[in-house]
């Protein structure tokens, strides 16, 4: 699937989650598109470093600490992008969990079709 299409789908998911989850606010679709780009960049550059530094904790918790890292990435995106707001850590955790699951479902069909 084209990267631009993936960004648009992710931006639409961000808008949808902001509509349904209390505590998540997005100013508009343009902001959601910026959130999708920033999340992609944070997942490429920052998340591996966080995983490396927290590897012992991740191993002890059998990988569940990765959920905390995902929530921290969402909260970092909140700090970087104006017009995107996540009110609490648990909201960021739920947001990242739902976003990851739905993205996995949508983008897994892309691999089966190829």
TrEMBL record:
The chain crosses the membrane at residues 5-21, 27-46, 53-76, 88-107. Keywords: Membrane, Transmembrane, Transmembrane helix. It comes from the Bacteria. InterPro entries: Phage_holin_4_2. PANTHER family: SLR0284 PROTEIN (PTHR37309:SF1). This is Phage holin family protein. It comes from Flavobacterium agri.
């Amino acid at each position: 699937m084209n990267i631009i299409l993936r960004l648009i789908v992710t931006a639409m998911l961000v808008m949808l989650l902001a509509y349904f989850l209390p505590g998540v606010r997005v100013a508009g679709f343009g902001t959601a598109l910026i959130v999708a780009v920033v999340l992609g960049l944070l997942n490429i550059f920052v998340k591996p470093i966080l995983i490396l530094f927290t590897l012992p904790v991740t191993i002890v918790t059998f990988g569940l600490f990765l959920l905390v890292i995902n929530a921290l990435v969402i909260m970092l995106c909140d700090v970087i992008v104006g017009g995107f707001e996540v009110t609490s850590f648990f909201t960021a955790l739920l947001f990242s969990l739902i976003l990851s699951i739905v993205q996995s479902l949508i983008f897994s069909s892309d691999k089966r079709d190829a």
